[in-house]
Write a structure and sequence with these properties.
167 residues; four-stranded mixed β-sheet; 43% strand
Amino acid sequence: MKIPVKSDYDWFPYLDSFRYFYRLEGHSYLSNVYNDNLKDCIRFLSDSDGSYISYNACCCCGTHILSDEGMWSDYLDDYLCDNCATYSEYQDSYIAIDTAVKVFYDRSFDTYDYVDQDCVDAAFDSFANIGDDWFFIDNEEMIKIDDNWYWIDECECDENGEYKPIE
């Protein structure tokens, strides 16, 4: 059942039966039926303080999430759903898991963080790629030779004081 209303409102009463407020093509109405196809147009009138709950779309997969759920990403300036989000301490923000790079603090592989691939690419002097793994650069343990990173104990110093990988 639909009840047409004349305009949009700033505050809404708590509505038990007609709790779905839709705005669609210039028309607004209350309904007691939830329409999954109209998630972008809906407000849930289920708060007794006069406010409402609306939907946001995950910027990664497009899944609709309630405004009081999901994760806000300061890095992406958008919402992420639980399935698409991981937290990056380095970036102090949630980031998309699809573009997250696992970066280890040392070669024990015990401690790590996730960093967005674009951040890894932009801050090339903060991260080292050794084999298939990424590490935060620790200048005491790593050395860069011909644009490639190596563990310093896996290199040898020649008579000229230059390092090369041990073969």
